[in-house]
Design brief:
Length: about 250
C-alpha cells in the first residue's frame, strides 16, 4: 500500500516511519510513504501557504494554490490513490472503516493546519474526510500517523503473527480480553487458573467471556450494535451474574 502525505511538517514523519511495526513494514516494502510539502509549491519568496479567512474571525486558512499543486503531483505519482482530508468534521473512523481503507491500493492524506483548508479545495479535490475522534489537535499529522499505523498493521505480513490483528479490540465488535504473561503470580495476584490449564477450548471460552464482559462494562454501546449468538449471550449473562456490583 502507498501513502502520500501532504504536510507542512514532513519531518514529523521521519521518526514515525523508522520505528516499530510501521518502520518494519516500510523497510520490507509492505507499505510506502511519500511526503509532499505545500510550501514547495508556494509562488512568493516567503513561501506563503495561508491567508486570513473571508468574513473575519480568528486564525488563518490554508490556501488552495500550494495545496492543490501538491495534490496533483501526488496524484500523478500515485495513480489510483484516493484523497482523504484529516479533519474534526470528517466521519469518525472505526475498525471496520480502517479495514476498508486498507483494501485500497493507496491514499493521499492531507494533513491540514491552522483553521483548516479552503472549502473549495475540499469540494473539488477531496474524496473522503476522516476524523480520529471527537476532539481537536493542532494539525492533521498525528491523525495521519494514526490512520497509517492502524491500516499498516492489517496488511498481510506486517505483524509477527497473522492472527494478532484479528484478535484486536473492535475487530469483532468487542473490546479485547485481558492478557497475562510470566511470572504466574505477582504480589499475590495470580494469573487466572484457566490460562494455565492447557485446555484450549476452555481458554477460548474464557477469553470470549472476558471480551464480552469488558465491553459490557466499558463500552456498552458496542454491544448494542452487535447481535450476540446464544452462546455469547449465555457467557455474558454469566459474567454479569458474577459481577453484580459492576452496575
Amino acid at each position: 500500500m502507498r501513502f502520500d502525505v501532504i504536510s507542512l511538517f514532513p519531518d514529523l514523519f521521519r521518526i514515525f516511519s523508522g520505528q516499530g511495526v510501521v518502520g518494519r513494514a516500510l523497510k520490507r516494502g509492505r507499505a510506502e510513504l511519500h511526503l509532499w510539502n505545500p510550501r514547495d509549491y508556494a509562488q512568493d519568496k516567503h513561501r506563503t501557504v495561508d491567508d486570513r479567512p473571508y468574513g473575519g474571525g480568528p486564525g488563518m486558512v490554508m490556501k488552495i494554490g500550494p495545496l492543490q499543486a501538491a495534490i496533483e503531483d501526488a496524484k500523478r505519482a500515485a495513480a489510483g490513490s484516493k484523497v482523504a482530508y484529516l479533519t474534526p468534521q470528517g466521519r469518525l473512523l472505526v475498525q471496520d472503516a480502517i479495514a476498508k481503507i486498507a483494501a485500497e491500493p493507496g491514499w493521499i492524506l492531507i494533513a491540514g493546519r491552522y483553521e483548516g483548508i479552503d472549502e473549495r479545495l475540499v469540494e473539488c479535490s477531496v474524496d473522503e474526510e476522516w476524523s480520529i475522534g471527537d476532539y481537536v489537535v493542532s494539525g492533521g499529522e498525528l491523525p495521519a500517523m494514526v490512520v497509517m499505523d492502524a491500516v499498516i498493521r492489517l496488511l498481510p505480513g506486517t505483524l509477527g503473527h497473522a492472527g494478532s490483528a484479528r484478535e484486536d479490540s473492535y475487530t469483532a465488535g468487542l473490546l479485547d480480553y485481558p492478557h497475562y504473561t510470566r511470572p504466574a503470580a505477582i504480589a499475590g495476584a495470580p494469573v487466572p487458573r484457566v490460562l494455565l490449564s492447557g485446555d484450549h477450548g476452555a481458554i477460548a471460552r474464557w477469553r470470549l467471556q472476558q471480551a464480552l464482559g469488558r465491553t459490557w462494562l466499558r463500552r456498552p454501546e458496542l454491544l448494542a450494535r452487535r447481535e450476540l449468538s446464544s452462546e455469547e449471550q449465555a457467557l455474558l449473562n454469566e459474567f454479569i451474574h458474577a459481577y453484580p456490583n459492576a452496575l
